[in-house]
Amino acid sequence: MADFLYQLLLSLDATLRIATPLMLCAMAGIFSERSGIVDISLEGKLLSGAFVAATIAALTGSAWLGLGCAMLAGIFMSLIHGFACITHRGDQVVSGVAINILASGLTIVLGIALFKRGGQTPSLPREDRFTPIEWWGVDMMDSVPVLGTIYRQLISGHNMLVYVALLAVPLTALILYRSRFGLRLRAVGEVPEAVDSAGISVTWLRYRALIVGGALCGIAGAYLSIAQGGNFVREMSAGKGYIALAAVIFGNWKPLSAFMACLMFGFLEAATTRLEGVALPLIGEVPTQLMLAMPYVLTVLLLAGFIGKPRPPAAIGRPYHK
Amino acid sequence: MNTALELKNVSKSFGLVKANKNINLAVEAGSIHGIIGENGAGKSTLMNIIYGMHRADSGEIHFGGQKVDVRSSADAIEHGIGMVHQHFMLVPTFTVLENVMLGTEGGLMLRDGRGAALERLLHLSETYNLQVDPHALVSDLNVGQRQRVEIIKALKGGAKVLILDEPTGVLTPQEADQLFEILKVLRDDGVSVLLITHKLSEIMDITDTVSIMRQGEMVGHRKTSETSPQELAELMVGREVLLEVDRKPAKPAEVRFSAKNLGYTNAQGVVELEDINFEVRSGEILGVAGVSGNGQTQLMETLAGMRHLTSGSLNILGTEVTAADQTDPRIIRDLGVGHIPEDRHTHGLVLNFEARENMILGFQDTELAGSGKLFDYKTIQQNCEDKMAHYDVRPPNPRLNAKNFSGGNQQKIVIAREFSANPGVLLVGQPTRGVDVGAIEFIHKQLLELRDAGCAILLVSVELDEIMSLSDRIMVLCGGQNVGIIDSADADRQTLGLMMAGQRQEAAA
Ligand SMILES: Nc1ncnc2c1ncn2[C@@H]1O[C@H](COP(=O)(O)OP(=O)(O)OP(=O)(O)O)[C@@H](O)[C@H]1O
Ligand SMILES: [Mg+2]
């Protein structure tokens, strides 16, 4: 029993680590999608963030500088998206896909040009990364049964960006539902005409939403390459941007629900690694591929209306014409 | 004269369309100023320029004697302009209060300004008798209530000029009367009201002055007390207009369409139609009157096959349809029923399709689309050109997307399509909603011609005048039930009003 608990704890711990970039990207997706802009380019922004973070950290030896530049890179990608589909009213999906392709190609080309390692960046020494933070009193708590272990494994011992991601969720909810910016953001995603008629610029509002989203994706990218890992590898984002988008849809464009969806997807992946090669009673050995496909399968089922009906922002995907 | 707002030589083009040409307009402080004009005359464009939603290509705007530069709605609001748009600009998922706060939140966090906003809202709603629950979701409100929210929004910043673009188009007559009471109070408070409407009776009743637009130009200004509906209609259209329909007595023949104990219960189990009985004969028009929301929409959609009746039966040109039959609009259409839907945007047209394609919608399997398996665009084009000429659709361009026609001309496309199929039975919903007097005259004439050619017509309209002047017999709905059917010769506003309130015919008469 104790062993099972310990295993579960380790799985939850892994869940949190896997879910961190998903949470950040999902919050980014909520900002842009709630403003009425389809954000399929989460993936590309995540990838660019990861590359820039690792590159800058490798060149300057500063994780913080890497993080800052990753955020700028995410914002830059967002601005391209905005220029195409807010300013020029282009198709938002096409623009998003273009950004993903751009990011995927550009990170490899630049990576090879800069470091000549086949697209990888050099491995960072520990002190140049965001390292796990021991919380106060972990050793003291160890004497307390169960709680002590939970405290040590689950709550303490993550790197700073995990806590940033956890903070981003209530913060997003707070901004979205309690602030002036959030009110306007929700309005512009539903009825942009109403926002225009109230004397607020639809264009600038949507740009701001994309900028916030770009910064969040940049943080997520930095997490991948200079916190969770120690360098950048080609295609490092590996579909996490898409999963985050799925989480946004799963969570019905609401921060807390999307957060739960991220945890669920994270748990599925964590469980996959744990269950590899393990035969379960009745079912037998579960193919890893099936587990990895679960987020996508669930999303398809949701979109097909089996799980519930998502209610996207009414004006999503529609360029605003006066 | 104390001028609140003055426009000098304002012009605006959209591509090749000159929507406004050298417009001059002066509005006195503390007056109600009407603006009328045909569909597409440029009224909304002009109002949007004043409110900063569009920028004029040239010309000047003066507020309170001072020339101002209105670059956005924010500027206009600052200068004391409020506007209620032709289409509601409300966020349905927000509460009334949130909608009112939008743009004037009063602080970075909503908490900071909520109290003050609520106070202002309640104050306005009390002063002008605009009753609405601040915490209700807008999606739960009916159109009359939504309009009140729009007015509160327009007034919240202390507007000195209030623009209302066709506010009564979607209101019931009672709601419209309430609105006019509010406008009078505003006028007495010194607010200038700019009112756009297609209903000349409203212009005559409530405005002090009126300006007439035609094809982008201002063709006249009148004092309301010194003009007549006849003169206004002629100025608008540029020719003589018959305001009264000339209806000859009907010559009803065989029954073509009847309903027996018809009922409709929706998916949530709410009974929306109950025990409806009627018959429509060849050569007559049966009008359906009622306060909107009393089952008219459900009735039309059930008859047209868009919903399945849940009890009773229909007889359509000899074919019996019961609840057990899985009907759909296709089957009903093939029986010889034409349908002009109440909402042309969602059910009558595909807005992003060209006019010529819309002209064969529902008839795409017939000769109109050519004889082969594929569309023959020559035939389709020709068909559209002919019908546009016959029904005077403007501009007569078959390649224009339906959404780029003005409301009246969109309606004419639907009417041209349905009328020329020569249906045995015709269901007509709100044929003249948002349509100008010239087009109304035309549509009414066509309806009567079709009747005299032997068509059995069922007409639903919220306009009592329209029902009374076109129908041979009138059925009144209240709460989804048939209150009674009376001869239109016996119908006056009083009787119908009582019946619409649910009093049975015997009691009312
Ligand atoms: N955004 C736009 N782009 C292109 N053309 C437009 C636009 N808005 C209006 N128009 C055109 O300008 C002309 C005037 O339109 P407007 O909406 O001002 O008419 P209106 O008098 O308000 O008509 P209605 O009574 O039907 O509301 C029409 O020919 C219309 O097709
Ligand atoms: Mg208009």
Architecture overview:
Chain A is mostly helical. In chain A, 70% of the residues lie in helices and 1% in strands. Chain A has 13 helices and 2 strands; from the N terminus they run H-H-H-H-H-H-H-H-H-H-H-H-E-E-H. A two-stranded antiparallel sheet of chain A has the order 1-2. In chain A, helix 1 crosses helix 7, helix 2 (42-60) packs across helix 10 (202-228) and helix 2 (42-60) crosses helix 11 (240-250). The relative contact order of chain A is 0.20. The mean pLDDT of chain A is 90. Chain B is α/β, with parallel strands linked by helices and 509 residues long. Chain B folds into 3 domains: 3-237, P-loop containing nucleotide triphosphate hydrolases (Rossmann fold, 3-Layer(aba) Sandwich), CATH 3.40.50; 249-336 and 425-509, P-loop containing nucleotide triphosphate hydrolases (Rossmann fold, 3-Layer(aba) Sandwich), CATH 3.40.50.300; 346-422, no CATH class. A 6-stranded mixed beta sheet of chain B has the order 6-7-8-3-9-10, with helices on both faces. A 6-stranded mixed beta sheet of chain B has the order 16-17-18-13-19-20, sandwiched between helices. Chain B has a 4-stranded antiparallel beta sheet with strand order 2-1-4-5, with helices on one face. In chain B, helix 14 (407-420) packs parallel to helix 15 (437-452). The longest helix of chain B has 18 residues, at 110-127. Chain B starts with a strand and ends with a helix. At the A-B interface, helix 8 and helix 9 of A face helix 2 and helix 3 of B. Residues 43-44, 86, 165 of chain B line the site of magnesium ion.
